[in-house]
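Researcher: Final request for today, and then I'll write up notes for the group meeting. The sequence and the SMILES for fe (ii) ion follow.
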Amino acid sequence: MRKSIISALIAGLSLTGIVQAADLTIYSGRGESFVAPLVQQFEQNTGLKVTVRYGDTAQLASLILEEGQRSPADIYWGQDAGAMGSLAYAGVLAELPESLFTDIPEIFSSQNRQWVATSGRSRVLVHSTERVDQSEMPSSVFDLTDEKYKGRVGWAPTNGGFQAFVTAMRVTHGEETTEQWLRDMAANQPVVFRNNTTIVEGVGNGDADFGLVNNYYLPRFIARNADFPARQTFFANGDIGNLLNVAGVGILERSNNQEAALKFVEFLVSPAAQQYFTSVVNEHPISNQVIANPVLGNTDTLLGASPEVNLDDLYDLPGTLELLRKVGLI
Ligand SMILES: [Fe+2]
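Model: Predicted protein-fe (ii) ion complex:
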């Protein structure tokens, strides 16, 4: 009762025009439906008022660089390590306290401590359970250029997840090898899809036998239909086809709200928020202190499968787009 009187009073106050200024401004490349409940929880926990500007991950990162000292952003939250790396290399992010990283596997943190991952998603190989025999499973993404996969592999060259993977291949294997792989793949008559969802759908209905996708799409199909005729696997441990990409968060160095901003970052890596990413969004948690999502498999498998890549080095998306254009894929 008391509480409802207080909320009525607060509602009345804002109606009369007394609006509280924001304590924190977040630029978020992550979607509103996913972020808003977390922000609301954070506001309830701390009494701080948060304003979020939503947009495309890469575009918001560029905007922060354009705005420079005038930027109202205290925090940048992007869904791609490449965007985090571009801000880190531009030198606009504050160094985060070492204590934040104590329980977090190295693979989820930037080496220079300028940002921390909030969750992870892997590249995986989805395959038909009806048309693929176990003996046909490739051990590397490089095997897919083989004659026996001709016309059978689905991919989506315009998709951000795929492009981040190509950037990682450029970083780990070099430009020439990557260009050759793209050309050999294209010559092997892949089935081209718009995005990850349509790839998984296509593997289910027979348009392709294999597909290069992010890990959280197939679980959605299986949640609706346990008999959906596809499953997913990693390539051999360490293969670049298993790239672990992350969403990450950083604090702008020029922000005057460092303390409040750090509270928000701490909230995102806390077990409560991590449980949400894992259970609701089907993304890999960065901490072991959550109840695992059964469809994601355990963290040790993930860490074993993931190739070693310095996530900050995934910043060169423009170079990847140029390469994809050069070989005629976009
Ligand atoms: Fe996605």
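Model: Residues 121-243+316-326 form a domain with the D-Maltodextrin-Binding Protein; domain 2 fold (CATH 3.40.190.10). The beta strands are 24-28, 50-54, 75-78, 116-128, 153-155, 191-192, 210-214, 230-233, 244-251.
Researcher: Thanks, that's everything.
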